[in-house]
Amino acid sequence: MNTRNRLPLAALVTLIALASALSLAPPTHAWVSPATGTPAPGAVLRPFDPPARDWLPGHRGVDLHAPPGTPIRAAGRGTVAFAGAVAGSPTVSLEHGEGILTTYQPVLPRVSAGDAVEEGQIIGVLAEAPASHHGPGTGLHWGARPLPDKDRYLNPLLLLPAPAIRLKPVDAPARRPSAGGWR
Q1: Assigned CATH class of 61-159
Q2: Which of 156, 158, 84 is nearest to 124 (CA)?
Q3: What is the pLDDT of residues 19-32, one digit of tens each?
Q4: Which DSSP helix (H) or strand (E) runs through 4?
Q5: E strands, 15-151, where?
């Protein structure tokens, strides 16, 4: 085979390899904060504080600032596993394809068990939170657990993409663009 025939063959092999690699790549999944509908969680009223043992006190999720009446969104694509009341608190739980169950309280559901939801889709409206649970402010309790191990809890904030951090020198003079670029 001469050089002239090898070039198209090499290009074809490269294209087939690239197409195969792309088709085998795991799908990317976007996650959003249920309180904001964006990758940024908003103000955290109470952080994740898992107990050392299952029966000990702790905080098995995070509380995010949101006033009553705020539309609450699905953190990720999934299926509604539960929409109803748990111990008198309106609750929505979603099963996600990644083997994660997320729970939202106190949320008056706008979805029903079995409904498919997309990330960012409104699943309910935040109800008035009991003062004993959230302290002085109101907010959304957002929890996450791995499936099928429903006895473990995950920090749901870790589902969100890491924020971009940009640093600038404290003592540097302000830089402004000029015709020649940044100076």
Answers
A1: mainly beta
A2: 84
A3: 443 333 333 467 99
A4: helix 3-24
A5: 44-46, 62-65, 71-73, 78-86, 89-96, 100-105, 107-109, 116-117, 122-126, 139-146
With b for 16 or more beta-carbon neighbours within 10 A and e for fewer, the 114-126 pattern comes to ebebebbbebbbb
> Which of 56, 122, 58 has the alpha carbon at shortest distance from 92?
122
Structure tokens at 39: 């990758």
- 141-172 residue pLDDT tens: 999 999 888 778 999 999 999 877 777 777 76
Q: Where are the chain's structural domains?
A: 61-159
Report residue 67 as tokens. Answer: 């006033």
Query: What's the CA gap between 58 and 20, in Å, rounded?
Result: 46
